[in-house]
Amino acid sequence: MPPTLVLIRHAEGLHNVDNNIPDPELSELGRRQCGDLRENIMARIPKELDVGLIIVSPMRRTIETAMLVFHDLISKGVPIQAHAGWQENSAQPCDTGSPIPQLVAEFPLVDFSHVDPVFPDKTSPAGAKYRHTRQAIVARGQAALHDLYSRPEKVIVVVSHSGFLRVGVAGFWFFKADYRIFDFEEREDASSPYRLLRWDSTAAGGMGLSKEHPVPLGDGLPDDEGTEHEGSA
Question: Where is region (Disordered) located (predicted)?
């Protein structure tokens, strides 16, 4: 049976003030938001959510969010792994990661061994699958879900980013430090796309902070030819 996914948007980062900051850390408000999120979500663990794995985008703000919220789980041995497939969409400085050796030194509890060696490149031919286009981002979302679909854990937490979660993976808005819980839809066959079913209890986010209406995957993203794609709903 595929795992249940807890998809979390990171708390507020310094880039919310200045998006020219490369790979920003959390702001002081963001750290307070992590405290609120920890109190909310840890009340569901392990009663509702038997978490067996934590995955993070290899960006400072997502790693810091995971470390602050799930410190108790990590200290008890729940693995935390970085995965480039869950990074944010754009190639702006704030959405471009730091070199992995630097992150390894800063976050020794995080397993970076699974990070694509091309990270943090998003613009060269080698980093083409991380381009800021509708085709690349939707494909990356499917690849990220494919990686999780057959994993043995009952519940997997993913700490990622607003844009990628909204238009690449889930089709819903995520406020800062808010989360939604999903199960995989049953697939008709091996060629069927991966789709998620949201838990009703997180319709407005587990913190109650997020917009409820859905967003089409790929909405508002530029096509490879440079035109912008508009969703139908």
Answer: 207-233
